[in-house]
Amino acid sequence: MAMKDFFKKLLGQSNDAEVRRLQKIADSVLALEDKYKGLSDEELQKQTPLLKERLHNGETVDDILPDAFAAFREAVWRVDGKRLFPVQIMGGICLHQGRIAEMKTGEGKTHTATLPAYLNALTGEGVHIVTVNDYLAKFQGEWMGNIFRFMGMSVGIIVHDMDNAQRRQAYACDVTYGTNNEMGFDYLRDNMVIRESDMVQRGHAYAIVDEVDSILIDEARTPLIISGQGDKSTELYARADQFVSRLKNEEDYTVAEKEKAVSLTDEGVAKAQSFFKVENIADMENSELYHHILAALKAHALMKRDVDYVVQNGNPGTGKTTVARLLAKIYYRLGVLSKGQLIETDRSGLVAGYVGQTAIQVQKVIQQALGGVLFIDEAYTLANGENGNDYGKEAIDTLLKGMEDHREDLIVIVAGYPALMERFLNSNPGFRSRFNQFIHFEDYSPDELTAIFEKLCQSNGYHLAKDAHHYAVKYFEKRWQARDETFANAREVRNFFERVTTYQANRVASAGQMSDQALSELLLRDLEAVGDLNASDDEGETLESLMEQLNSLIGLKTVKKEVTTLINLVRVRKMREESGMQQPELSLHMVFSGNPGTGKTTVARLLAGIYRQLGILSKGQLVEVDRSGLVAGYTGQTAIKVREVVQQALGGVLFIDEAYALTSEGTDSFGREAVDTLLKCMEDHRKNLIVIAAGYPEPMEQFLDSNPGLRSRFNRFIHFEDYTPAELLEIFESICKKGGYKLSPKSKMYAEGYLRELSAAQKQHFANGRAVRNFYESVIARQADRLGAARRPSQEQLSEILLGDMCDGNARAELDRMLSVGIIRQEKEQQPERAFQTQASCEVLPCAASAQPSPSSRPAEKENRRAADSFEPQPALVHTGQQLQPGARIGLGELQQKRLSVCFADEGKPKEIDIDAYAFLLNANEKVRKETDLVFFGNPSSENAVCLKTEQKIPAIDIEPNRIPQDVAKVTICFSVYDDRSGQNLSSVKKPCIQVFDKTRELFWIPFGTIEPIRTVVAVHFYRRNGEWRMNAVANGYNAPLSSLCQSYGLTVQ
Question: Is the CB of residue 845 less than 8 Å from the CB of residue 568?
Answer without folding.
Answer: yes
